[in-house]
Amino acid sequence: MIFKQITELQFDEFRNQYKQKNYWQSVQMAQFRKSNVPSWTDTYVGLEENGRLVAASVLESLPVFGKHKLYMALRGFLIDYDDLQTVRLFLQELKKFLAKNDCLYMKVDPYIAYQPHNPDGTAAQGYKRDALVNVFEEEGFHHEGFRVGYDSAFEPRWMQTLDLEGKTKQEVFKAMHTNTRQSIRNAERMGVKVKELGREELNILKDLVDLAGKTRHFSTIDLPKYERYYDHFGDDFKACLAYVDLDEYENNVKKDREKQVRALEKASRELEKTPDSQKKINRKKEAEYAIAGCDRKLAEIKEYKDGYGSVLYLAAASFIITSYEVVYLLSGSNKELNRFAGSFMIQWHMIQYAIDHGCSRYNFYGISGDFDEAAQDYGVFTFKKSFNAEVQELIGDFTYIAQPVPFKIYDVLRNIKHKLMH
Predict the structure, then answer these.
(1) DSSP for residue 25
(2) Following CA atoms 86, 164, 325, 375 in sequence, which dihedral angle do they give, to the nearest 10 degrees?
(3) Of 95, 113, 124, 175, most Cβ neighbours within 10 A?
(4) What angle is formed at CA 198 by the lines to CA 197 and CA 200, rounded to 5 degrees?
(5) Residue 63, φ and ψ in degrees, nearest 5
């Protein structure tokens, strides 16, 4: 096998036929990062057998200590991780490449599961990829441990995914928790709709994410970053808004009320003829109850219009799409409008999108891996679990020190700088 530098086009062609592709290992992501920090440089490498690529990766590098560079393979390589011989050869040849190209150290976090888990997060009996960890370790890539929790310096090691392979929308919906199905049905009855936001509307996504960030105390991103996602990923980036058109909702409630008034009048007339009919008595009570419900809704609609105008922005979320999966990136909602279940509707909308486009799975993405009920993100975990999502524990992060002596100096200086800044 031959390890060599390849063109952007060769990488893209190989990626297109690689089933379990991810958006981090893509030309779009490399360009996206460079647009944010122009100092990043991307290099495409591959492992070739008999003139055919069997593995590839986009390596991103950044000068960090004189001419010495940090290299990163975001979410690892496009490779068969169960073919340990090929993985080992790729790592050996990669190290030779790094030695010739001023690498100080390298970080890689393979996009591959470590072991299976039960729906409640506990480890299940089954295959563990310890042998893969050992191959990386033996080749000098230090495993950073089986991290639990969130760390802004790393991509999540834990996530939740929904298997869609060979399943219909009806099957996927039926497998959801009863309360989740009910929330979606109720939202549909209340006229909640989902639409894709254009570039000029991304401020709506930002505002709702910022609102949620203030409530739940997480940091958010600025509008230009959303716009860069939109520009670089094109049709593979989706920003969705769940909303209610209150004028339309009001008209539907009024129509329902008129229907119930007619039913009440009919039941009242029939009761004059047969006053002891329990069936007619019950129908009259049902109509009265329904009319009272419609009156409550109309009063609520007036309050919402007074406070928000004629359209309610309930929730918004962003996604990145590959042929393998739809990845849920981030979202925000107005918690004062949670009764409309906008967040549930967005998820169901994009799950259906994934099924329609033949994706193998829907990726709810990051969770902490702490499944205790007291965990800070336990509500996030249970929300995703309610869609029948499975827990995925990724194998973790590896660091390769290409030049130990310069790295030691660099690390000391970096720690001093960190202490001075904090």
Answers:
(1) S
(2) -100
(3) 113
(4) 115
(5) -65, 130
AA letter at 5:
Q
Q: How far apart are CA 229 and CA 237, in angstroms?
A: 7
The answer to whether residue 150 scores a pLDDT higher than 90 is no
Beta bridge partners of 313: 243
b/e code 55-81 from CB counts within 10 Å (16+ = b): bbbbbbbeeebeebbbbbbbbbbbbeb
Match 């390589």 to its residue by tokens.
77
3-state secondary structure of 112: coil
User: Residue written as tokens 């939109």?
Assistant: 230
422 pLDDT band, cuts 50/70/90, is low
The tokens for 139 are: 């080749």
Distance CA 287, CA 260 (A): 5
Question: Each residue of 287-345: pLDDT tens digit?
Answer: 999 999 999 999 999 999 999 999 999 999 999 999 999 999 999 999 999 999 999 99
| Cα–Cα distance measured from residue 412 to residue 367, given in angstroms and rounded to the nearest whole number | 32
Cα separations in angstroms, 422 against 150, 408, 415, 417, 418: 20, 21, 11, 9, 6
pTM across the whole model: 0.92
Number of Cβ atoms within 10 Å of the Cβ of 9: 10
The pairing of beta strand 103-108 with beta strand 68-73: parallel
Beta-bridge mates of residue 116:
392
Q: What is the pLDDT of residues 45-81, one digit of tens each?
A: 999 999 999 999 999 999 999 999 999 999 999 999 9
